[in-house]
Specification:
This protein has about 425 residues and is an all-alpha fold. The protein is about 75% helix and about 0% strand. The chain has one domain: Growth Hormone, Chain: A, CATH 1.20.1250.20.
């Protein structure tokens, strides 16, 4: 039996994934097909959001850490992020020379309130969902949210399959995404939140605790997780370019790719959860990283859209493991009394990596071509699997079995 907050959180997740899928899934194809974006600009679609998050994470964490309640701040941040969808719809009315850059600028600014809402929601939900219920609840929530997102994306592709070259189709998507953003705000405000006591706030007077870097488990987590994320995120722009410019995927096929990926995730979440509980998060991440290494290699073997759909399905199996296990390992290796500082530090470093990695991927594309750059990416993903293996071997004798939770923000993670 779900509690009131659990039900509201699921409703919030459903409308949130619809808003994100209506807009974010089609940013690259809109930039390429309508705005004529260059390879470098397509790479910035992946790089600019983490750059803004890099500058906003610590200030947002400090502000949110001092609030008695996060709900209103999170809801307001979501509103400002979603209202920028309306500006995206107006980009086509700007002079063609500036359209792509205006589009990128709006995406960048969208992530200022977006960073606040992401961190605030993590804090909000961790405070209103009991710890002993989180594992089952977030597993159920992610599956339900993924199903809604999958259906939404497929319907978009079917209704707009012949609209790939028409700007109006994207404008309609952005406006509808804004309307679902308003529903996000509504369901966020429906949560019942308890105000934190002033004595609890008194403990939050420090913006940083550098002693977290003395913890060997946390330091090893940072090294392994950042190595993996670098190799993972390096290919984001490359996949977008390959699908649109090389394979000539339309809105319908982009939707099919996303649905195929998410469908496999729905069914594979429970498997990764069971494996992590039976073995360990770290050992399973060895296999996840190795599996993720197959996606770049397999992608460049063909431009056949049916084949690429199959590749997306295999990728989805390992993406679900990535989504589930990385956050689990962060919680497992972060000292309880310093967990807030550990999570904030990881997010800051992750934002830096997420800004640099896609740019390096685009640079490799320019100097070596698509096949070579994706081949190098596969190799780097295998290296990250080896780093996870080293961490597992180092800590397997002192392993503490941790409860398995799902990612707080799974729906925003890219598909491969």
């Amino acid at each position: 039996m779900r509690t009131y907050n659990e039900k509201v959180s699921i409703y919030h997740g459903m409308v949130s994934i619809v808003a994100v899928n209506l807009a974010g899934n089609f940013f690259p194809i809109f930039a390429i097909a309508i705005l004529g974006a260059s390879n470098y600009q397509v790479g910035l679609i992946s790089s600019l959001p983490p750059l803004m998050a890099l500058g906003m994470t610590i200030p947002a964490a400090i502000v949110l850490n001092r609030l008695q309640q996060q709900k209103k701040t999170v809801a307001l941040s979501v509103f400002w992020a979603r209202i920028l969808f309306l500006l995206l719809a107006g980009v086509v009315y700007i002079h063609s020379s500036y359209q792509a850059w205006a589009f990128l600028l709006i995406i960048a600014f969208m992530n200022i309130p977006g960073t606040i809402s992401t961190i605030g929601w993590q804090t909000l939900i961790s405070g209103i969902i009991d710890e002993d219920r989180r594992g089952a609840f977030f597993s159920d929530r992610n599956r339900l949210v993924t199903i809604v997102g999958m259906v939404t994306t497929l319907l978009i592709g079917i209704f707009m399959k012949k609209q790939t070259e028409h700007a109006l189709a994207y404008q309609v998507l952005f406006v509808i995404a804004f309307l679902f953003g308003l529903l996000e705000v509504f369901f966020l405000m429906k949560h019942k939140e308890k105000a934190e006591s002033t004595s609890g706030l008194a403990k939050k007077n420090s913006s940083m605790d550098w002693s977290i870097f003395h913890d060997k488990g946390y330091k090893w987590f940072l090294i392994t997780a950042l190595c993996f994320n670098f190799s993972w995120q390096m290919a984001w722009g490359l996949f977008n370019i390959y699908n649109v410019k090389y394979a000539h995927a339309t809105i319908l096929w982009i939707s099919i790719f996303s649905v195929a990926n998410q469908l496999v995730q729905v069914f594979s979440f429970p498997l990764w959860k069971k494996l992590a509980e039976a073995k360990s998060n770290t050992l399973m991440l060895v296999w996840v990283a190795a599996g993720m290494a197959t996606a770049p290699f397999l992608t460049v073997l063909s431009t056949n859209l049916v084949y690429l759909t199959f590749v997306q399905m295999t990728s989805g199996f390992f993406v679900s493991g990535t989504t589930l296990l990385l956050f689990n390992l962060l919680l497992e290796k972060s000292p309880n009394e310093k967990k807030t500082y550990c999570i904030t530090t990881y997010n800051v470093l992750l934002s830096f990596v997420a800004f640099i990695a896609p740019q390096i991927g685009i640079w490799l594309l320019e100097v070596s071509g698509m096949q070579t750059s994706l081949g190098i990416n596969s190799l780097l993903r295998l290296v990250s699997a080896f780093v996870f293996l080293l961490m597992y071997l180092k800590f397997r004798d002192t392993k503490i079995v941790a409860k398995t939770y799902t990612s707080f923000d799974m729906e925003k993670i890219p598909k491969k």
